[in-house]
Amino acid sequence: MWDSKRSIVLSIVCTRAVIVFAVAVAAFLPFLIDSGFFSSSAFRIQDAVVAKLMPVYYAVCVPGLAALFNVNALLVAIRAGKVFVAANVRYLRAISWCCFAAAAVFAVGARGSLALVLIAAAAAFAGLIIRVVKNVLESGVEMKDENDYTI
Amino acid sequence: MNITVNIDVMMARRKISAGELSERIGITPANLSILKNNKAKAIRFSTLEALCRELNCQPGDLLAFDDN
Questions:
Q1: pLDDT tens digits, residue range A25-35?
Q2: A52 lies in which domain range?
Q3: Quick check: B7 contacting A, CB < 8 Å?
Q4: Would residue B66 count as lying in a domain?
């Protein structure tokens, strides 16, 4: 049956798969554009448009991959049963800042593109939500600490 | 924290070891160590009651307030 442990394992697998995918796309993007992959495949996007978005993708890869590595570390800690620990608060804080950084990159790189502006807004909103979760976890860590040291 | 726990003083007076005291009051030696080293953030009335009973003392003998 499905349980929380399997759910965490699935999350870890998905996170690592996204990391590999993001790195692979970053590595092969120039070759894909040169070969006309995007215009000829089901995407049907002009290669010139993809080439224009390429710097934005590479710029957003930095905070994006940093966020993914932090998500991976957070999930590994949760799998090990370490939920209310200070390290997890640090991971969530880093993920939140990465979201804001990605939002800034998308906003700067949008240059009038509504889609990128919407992605920037979504990333900023995700960063805000993660920040709230971080604050909740921080309170939880303090409560656990107090509980552990109540004799 | 300005509250200090003086269990070790009372333990020395009553000539009781940490292991024996922890067994008598029903807490782990690790938790007793936390109390002795003033790492505790709170103490339950039940623990304080057991300590006072086993060490034959008052709560004031175990706890002290230091304003400095």
A1: 999 988 888 88
A2: 4-148
A3: no
A4: no
